[in-house]
Amino acid sequence: MFWKYGLFFSILSGGIWGVFWQIFFTVVGILTLGTPLSLELSQIMIIGPLAGILYIKSQKILSIKFHLTAIIIITFLIFISHLGNPYQVEDENRLIIFMLILLTSFFVWVSLNHSLYNLSPGKLSKHDIESFFIKFMWGIGLIILILITLIPFYIMIMTSLKNQQSLILNPLDLSVNLNTDFKTLFNSYIELFTNFNFHLFLINSFIVSCTTVIITLFFSIPGAYALARLRIPNKKIFSGTVILIYLIPSIVLIIPLYAIFSYIGLRNSLFGLILVYPATTIPVALYMLRGYFSALSSEIDDAALMDGLSRIQIILKIAIPLSKPAIVSVGLYVFMIAWNEFLIAFMFLDDPNIFTLSRGIMSLNSSEIPQQHLMAGAVIATIPVMMIFLYLEKFLISGLSAGGVKG
Amino acid sequence: MTNIKKKNKNTLLEKEKKLGLILLLPTILIVLSVVIFPLLANFWISFKPVSLGDLRPPKLIVKERIKGKISDKNQIAEIQYRYRNSSIKYDLENVIIKDIIPNGFTVKDLQPTQFCRLKLKELICNLNNVSSRSSGKIILKVHKNDQWQKELDNPKKTKPLVTFSSKNVLTSFEFNTENFEKVFSASEFFEVLKVSFYYTIFGTAGALLVGLLAAQILQKSFRGRSIVRGLLLFPYVSPVIAVAFAWVILFDPFSGIVNSMLVQMNVIDKPINFFGQKYTDIIIFGYVFKFPLALSMVIAFEIWRYFPLSFLFILARMQSFPEEIYDAAKIDGASPFQQFYYISLPFLIGIMSILFLLRFIWTFNKFDDIFLLTGGNAGTRTFTVNVYEQAFAISNLGAGAAVAVVIFIFLLTFSLLFMRYSKKETF
Asked: In this predicted complex, what is the ipTM?
C-alpha cells in the first residue's frame, strides 16, 4: 500500500506544513502591512510536497550548507510560481513580502526537519508510522496551542496602543509605528490615569487584595493546622463541609448579600468587599494548607511538645517557617482570586472613587468610550497578576495544582 | 498508675479539642455569617415577592419651612411641616411627628387639629396612617413674643422627630411559591436548562480534552518547555474581565480583526456577529444545519480559559508515572499509541474523572464569562445569568433567588456525586 511508505508521509507533511505556514505568514503580512493580501494556497500545495520529497531523499547529505540551499530553493520556487510578485503588492512593500516568503520557506524546512527526521523513504513499520504521526502532530499542536493562547493578549496590547482614527480606518493594521513619540503611543494609558481615575482603582484593588490575603492567612493557618494535627471531634465532617462551601458560587449568594449589605449600609464600600472576599477564600486556603501541614512530619511537633512549647508556639515557630513556600503560594493564589474577582465588585460598588480595577474596566465598557481605552484598562489589570505569576511561577503552579480547581 | 496515665491523656485530649475548636472558630463564624446565613436568606427571599425597590425601606420625608417674617413682632408667621411617604407601595403606620417650638414664639393656630396638639412647647402630631405616595401639611401660625432672642429662637434649629412603623416584605412571615411557579412555568425554563447543560458538558469536556492534548505535548522535554508551560497558564491567571473583553474586541463585527481578516481573505462575504447571533446556517452536502453560534463561541472561550487547569493537573500526574513501565512496554514492542492507550490513559482516568466532575460543577456555576461576553443574549442564557437577569435586570429579587435555589439544588446533587466518587479515588 502506498500510504505505508515514507515518501507518502514526506509529501503529506510537506503539503500540510506548507499550507500552515503560508496561512500564518499571510496573516502576519496583513497585520504588519495593514493592506489586504489574498490567500493563495495552490502554489504552496505543490511546492511543500516537493520540499518534503527533497528532504527525505537527501537525508544522508544533510548539512548546514544543504539546509541553507534548500531554503533558498524553496523561496525561489515560491517566487517563480507567483510569477515573481507574490500577493501583487506595490513596490515599496516588496522587501517585506520577500522577508515573509523567506520566513515561510525557513519554517517549512525546519518543520520538515523536525517531523521527517530519520524517516526512511521506503516501507515503514507500524511503529514508525505512529512515531511519525505523533511527532508531526506534536509540532503542529504545540504551535497552534501557543498561538491560540497568545492571540487575545496580543490583540489586547496592540489595540491599546492604537488611536481611534487608525482603528476605524483599518482594523487590520496592528503594526506599531515606532516613530511616534511616547505620548501618542501610550495615549490611552495616560488618559486612563489622568481622566478616568485608574490610579485610584489600582490602589483600591491593591488594598482589597492585600487585606484579603492577610485576613485569609491569619485565619486559615491556625484553622488548617487544627484540622491537620489536632484531634477534633467530627473532623471528617468539617473537612467535607470545607470542600462543599468552597464549591458554592457567589452567584447563589449575591442576592441575599446585596439585600443584607444594602440594609446595613455596607454595600457601596471597600469595607464590605473586604468582609466578603475572605469568606470565599478562607475555605480554599484552609483546604490547601491542610494538605501541606498534614505532609509535615508530626514527630517534630511531638518533640517540640516534649520541650514544652505550646501549640500556638509550634504553629508560629515550626509549622509556619517549615511551610513558607506553601504559604506564599496560597497567599498568591488568594491574591489572584481577589484581584480578578468581578461579580461582587460589580454588584457592590457604585461610587467611582472606590472602584476596584475589575469594576473600573466594566465602567469603560460603553459605546462612548473608545475600544483602546478598554483594552488599556485590561492590560493594566493583567500586568500585576502576570508579573507576580512570572516572578513566582513555581510557587503559584504548586499552589494552583494543590487547590486550584476553583475557577 | 494506669489510672493516672488515662487521666492525663484525657485532659490532653480535652485541651486539644478545645484549642482546635478555638483555632477553627473564627473561620466557622466568618463562613457562617457570609456564606451559610446568606444561603439561608436566599431560601427565605425565594419564597417572597421581593423586588429591588423593597430594599429601600419606606420613609416619611418631613420638610420644615417658614413663611413670613418671624423677626417682625406684629406679623403672624407660619411654620409648615410638609410630609410625604416616599414608598410607592407601602403604607406607614403609627406615624408620629414631634418637634420643639422655641420659647420665643406664641402659637396662635394649629392645623390639622384632629391629629396635632401642643404639650408645653412640644408639638406632637399623631398622624396614624400615611398611605403610600400620599402627603400632607401641618401648619402652625405663630408670632414672636418678648422672650425672643435672635440667635436662639430659630424654629428650624430643632429637627422634627419622626417615628413610624411599616410593613417590611423582607422580614414579614408571608410566604408564597409564586416565584417558583414563575420560574418553572416560564417557557424559557427548558431553554435555560438546555443551554446550561450544553454549555457545561461541552465546556468541561472540551477543556479537559484540550488540557489532555496540551499535557501530552508538554510531556516531551524540549528547549523552552518551562516558558511554554508558563505561557499556557496565561488565560487562567489573568482577570476574566480583561480576557473576555479582548475576545469581544477580537470578534467584533465592525472593527474586529477576525471578521475583517476573513472578509479580506474572501472566506466570508460579510462580517459575522460571533457573540450576537443565535444561529448560523451551515450547509453540509446540501443540508442546512442551524449551528448555535453565540453559544459555541462562549463554550470556546470557556475551553480556552480553563484548559490550562486540566493541563496542569494532568501534566503533574503524568510526570509522576514510573518510567520503567514505558521502557518495558517498548521492549515488548508496544507502539506509541498502544503505550498511550494501555498505559497512560488508565493512569489518568482517575484524575480526569475527578477533574471532570469538579470542573462540571464550576462550569455549571460560571457567571462572569457569559455575562461579559454576551450578557446572556443570543441563546446563551444559563441559570446563573438568569439569576442576574431576574433579580437585577427585571428587579425581581424573589424570582432571582428562586433560580439561585434551583442552581443550589443542582450543585448539591453534583457535589454529593463528586464526594461519593472521589472517595474511591485518591486525589
From this structure: 0.88
